[in-house]
Specification:
The complex is a heterodimer of chains A (160) and B (171). By secondary structure, chain A is mainly alpha-helical. In chain A, 83% of the residues lie in helices and 0% in strands. The longest helix of chain A is centred in the C-terminal third of the chain and has 25 residues, at 131-155. Chain A is elongated, with a radius of gyration of 20 Å. Chain B contains nine helices and no strands. Classes of the chains: A mainly alpha (160), B mainly alpha (171). The interface between A and B is large, with 72 and 65 residues.
C-alpha cells in the first residue's frame, strides 16, 4: 500500500514538473472516470457488505472444515465465487484451515475462485465489458479455477 | 438500468436505517461491513485512478499499440503480466485499467490476459499467499493457472474480435 502512495506521489510530482497543464488533464480524467463508475462501486460495496454478513469468515471456516475433498472443493468454489474477501483476511483464513488438515484442493478452490470469479464485482465488470462478455468471462474463469484446483490436488498427491 | 441501481441503493439504505432504529443485529453488522470496506477501498481507489489518469496523458497510444496491440503476439501477453504484477486491489482496479488499455489500442487478447493476471499474480498478494500456504502451493497455482488464462485469452480475444466486439463504458 505504501508503494502505491509513493508511486502516485512520485508520478504526480514528476508530471507536475514536466507539464502542469497535462497533469491537470490527468487529474480531470481520473475524477471523470471515477465519477462515471461511482454507482458500480457503490453497488460493489453494498454486495460486499451483505455477503460478509451472510457468510462471515467464521461460517466459512466451519463449512470448509468438515466435508472432505470433493464436496469440500465444490463448496469452496461456490463460496469463493459468491463472496469477496481481501487477501489479508482470506489467506490467514486459508492458513488456519490448512493447519486443521483441510486438503490443498479445497483451499485452492477457495482462493482461486475468490481471485478469478466475482459476483460482487459483476456490476462494474458489466459496465466495462458488457453483460454477455462479463458472464462468459466469469463462467470461463470458474472452470479454469476448478481445473487449477484439481491439478493442485494431483500435485500434492491428494487426488485420486 | 440506472433506476434499478438507484432502487437497490435506496432499499439498502432503508434496510440499514431500519436495522439501526430497531436494533436488528445482522443489519447493523452489514452497516459496519460497509463502513470497513468503504474505508479499505478509499485507501486504494483515488490513487489508482490518478495513476490511470497519468497513464492516459503520458503513455503514447503508439507505444501501447506496438507492445500490446493485435500484431504484438506473445509479447503483448508478457506486457500484460508485467503491468498486472505490481498492482494492488484486484479486479475492481483492473477493470477501469482494462478500459484505458483498450482506449490506447491494446488487443483484446492482451487485455484479457491483463485481467486474468491481475487476479492471479499480483506480487503483494503472492507474497501473502506463499507465507500462509507455502511457496510450493503458490508456484504450482501460478504454473497451472497462468498458461490456462493466457490460452483462453488468446481464444476469447480472437473470437470477440471476429464478432466486432469493443470495450466501451455503457451509459
Amino acid at each position: 500500500m505504501k508503494i502505491l502512495y509513493l508511486l502516485t506521489g512520485l508520478g504526480l510530482a514528476l508530471s507536475l514538473v514536466a507539464d502542469p497543464p497535462r497533469t491537470g488533464k490527468a487529474l480531470k480524467i481520473a475524477a471523470k472516470r471515477f465519477s462515471k463508475l461511482l454507482g458500480e462501486f457503490a453497488l460493489l460495496l453494498i454486495l460486499v457488505s451483505l455477503a460478509l454478513t451472510l457468510l462471515p469468515p467464521r461460517t466459512i471456516l466451519s463449512y470448509l472444515k468438515g466435508p472432505g475433498k470433493l464436496v469440500g472443493t465444490a463448496i469452496a468454489a461456490l463460496i469463493g465465487s459468491i463472496t469477496f474477501i481481501p487477501g489479508f483476511i482470506s489467506y490467514p483464513l486459508a492458513g488456519i484451515l490448512h493447519n486443521q488438515g483441510v486438503p490443498y484442493v479445497v483451499l485452492a478452490a477457495f482462493v482461486t475462485t475468490l481471485m478469478m470469479v466475482g459476483i460482487v464485482t459483476f456490476p462494474l465488470e458489466q459496465k466495462i465489458l458488457g453483460t454477455r462478455v462479463a458472464i462468459v468471462r466469469n463462467i470461463l474463469y470458474f472452470i479454469l479455477a476448478l481445473v487449477t484446483s484439481l491439478a493442485i490436488g494431483l500435485i500434492f498427491g491428494e487426488i485420486p | 438500468m440506472k433506476t434499478k441501481k438507484g432502487l437497490a441503493i435506496v432499499l439498502y439504505s432503508l434496510f440499514l436505517g431500519l436495522s439501526l432504529a430497531l436494533g436488528f443485529k445482522p443489519g447493523i453488522q452489514t452497516g459496519k461491513n460497509l463502513l470497513d470496506f468503504t474505508i479499505q477501498m478509499m485507501k486504494v481507489l483515488p490513487f489508482a485512478f490518478i495513476l490511470i489518469g497519468l497513464f492516459e496523458v503520458w503513455v503514447p497510444r503508439e507505444a501501447v499499440e506496438r507492445h500490446m496491440g493485435n500484431a504484438s503476439g506473445w509479447k503483448g501477453h508478457l506486457w500484460a503480466i508485467i503491468l498486472a504484477a505490481p498492482m494492488v486491489g484486484g479486479l475492481y482496479v483492473a477493470f477501469p485499467m482494462a478500459y484505458t488499455l483498450n482506449k490506447k489500442g491494446a488487443g483484446l487478447g492482451a487485455i484479457f490476459t491483463f485481467l486474468g493476471a491481475s487476479s492471479l499474480c499480483r506480487t503483494p498478494m503472492l507474497i501473502f499467499e506463499a507465507s500462509f500456504l507455502g511457496v510450493k502451493f503458490s508456484l504450482a497455482r501460478l504454473a497451472i493457472s497462468l498458461p490456462l488464462v493466457i490460452g483462453s485469452s488468446v481464444i476469447l480475444g480472437r473470437a470477440l474480435e471476429r464478432k466486432g466486439y469493443e470495450i466501451h463504458l455503457e451509459e
